[in-house]
Amino acid sequence: MDWKKAVVSGIISYAVVFLVASALMFVPGAYDATTMQWAMWSQLLTTVLVFVVAYLIGTYYYFKAKPTEFLKEGLMFGIILVVISFLIEIPVMVYGFAAKMGWAWFTQWDILVGYVLLIVAAILAAYMKK
Hints:
This protein is mainly alpha-helical. Helices cover 72% and strands 3% of the residues. The protein has helices at residues 3-24, 40-62, 70-97, 109-129, and strands at 31-32, 37-38. A hairpin with a 4-residue loop joins strand 1 and strand 2 (37-38).
């Protein structure tokens, strides 16, 4: 496994999703700044985007896995994506933009599903490259 490439992939993945989610804040009806609540459609869109970005980065940037090791490689890459995202979200969201929520940020359904989808997308990308 190329750890450096995996970490860079995780940072790129997070940055792309963060930028798109940030742009969504300016779409009327997507985000209510007074309650800090996202509309359901914007949460779903961002969650799907997490999967698509992780899959594309895994497929086109990261994987050159051996056919017999796709599950192991995909799982390891997915775990790295989750760890990188988690570590970036602590200062950016928990102590930054969503500081009012604090650590409860990680209890939202879309965040939890997004973490699972990072792993699923990485395994699927590895499978498609086998």
